[in-house]
Amino acid sequence: MTISGSEKKRNLFFILSGIFLTNALLAEIVGVKIFSLEKTFGANPVNFELFSGANMSFNLTAGVILWPVVFITTDIINEYFGRKGVKKISFATVAFISYMFIVIFIITKLAPADFWLETNKQGANGDNFNVNFAFNKLFLQSAGIIIGSLIAFLIGQLLDVTVFHYLRRFTGADKIWLRATGSTLVSQLIDSFVVLYIAFILFAPANSKWTYTQLLNVGLMNYMYKFVVAIVLTPLLYLAHWLIDGYLGKEKADELMEEAARSSR
């Protein structure tokens, strides 16, 4: 059975949206874990002092493993479906993430079954273990972190699509790496600080607010990581374009890109 061009276009948006949404949801869930980038690769923490205050290392939320996939997918959706396509999936993702956190909050309020607590009452070393406390601790995030994450995500997405199409006016269909990587680097610079400011200064309890020095240190360390990853993953954009050209056909793919560019001016 032959698939029409319009159906291929719908299928492409469906697949890209699925990749985008799945990775965004997973990034929010696993984001509660903080890992050491240096120790993961068998190195000692860098203990780099960006500003006066505590030495900083690459202690990152596990979500940074998945967010680059979201950024790349954003640029691909931007390229083929324009500003409207990015906004559509971005607002839908915020709605789904909000729904996810509401469901998690309700689930943590359910009374645990006695046999579940009894079966899991010991840890790997035989120590006392409260599996219900661990479950709630793992999945519940503070309201400040959730709000900060969602606001930063939306600002980052809207800024990304704006910078992307601004750069496309100068690059045309060429220099994919420039508009894609450039828009990601600009949007993530803002995202890196917005989420920390909202979560740890604006909505944080008075006794646990961060100083602006801490904000600058942590924000810049996070951005340094994102900067490097954005550059390293640039070849994936060309791979994605090659796959899409093969699926849609080069002529149809170019037509879709031009249509997206016109609609985003």
TrEMBL record:
Name of this chain's protein: Probable queuosine precursor transporter
Role played: Involved in the import of queuosine (Q) precursors, required for Q precursor salvage.
Regions that span the bilayer: 12-36, 56-77, 89-108, 138-164, 176-203, 223-244
Membrane topology: Multi-pass membrane protein
Cellular location(s): Cell membrane
Keywords: Cell membrane, Membrane, Transmembrane, Transmembrane helix, Transport
Protein's UniProt keywords contain Lipoprotein: no
GO CC annotation: plasma membrane
A Pfam family: Vut_1
GO molecular function per UniProt: transmembrane transporter activity
Superkingdom in the source lineage: Bacteria
Membership in a protein family: Belongs to the vitamin uptake transporter (VUT/ECF) (TC 2.A.88) family. Q precursor transporter subfamily.
Signal sequence residues: none
Entry annotated with the keyword Membrane: yes
